[in-house]
Amino acid sequence: MKTENSAKRRRRPSEASSRPGGPELPFEESVGYQVRATHRALQRFLQIKIEPYGVTLGMWYFLRALWHEDGLTQRELSKRIGTMEPTTLSAIRSMESRGLVRRVQNKTDRRKWHVCLTPKAQGLKRDLIPLARDVVKTSVSSLGASEVRQLLHALSEVQKNLQAATRDFEDGEASDAE
What is this structure's pTM? Predict the structure, then answer.
């Protein structure tokens, strides 16, 4: 004998999402989920491409920042990458052991350490940047140029919205604490 509960369990997700008590944010409608799934797919593909060069995804982000501006301090590098300083220090030590970077103490402020690329890491740029470009090209291969521009613009707007909302929220928490 079929019960009302067994009928509910058999409903397709799209039917359940439109009914009270169904999923409130289906994955296919979640910008956060879709961005995360896309990011993970990009990372997996990039890792496959750069792994033969002895570079991990963690190293990749630090190399990119240093290729853009060599000699950043550990703190600056943490801010650029968006990692906590202990994570950055661990990555730097790993990269040092592989001969990709060296740390140089600041001459005027001995508390600061600058992270500098070695010739080996500088040489990797020639090999790895084209691979990264290929990953991006593959990821948007079914889109036209104007669609890619729209996608990048939309993602930029999402980032701005979230940065503003985060600032507003943090400012509100700070004023609540006063």
Answer: 0.75
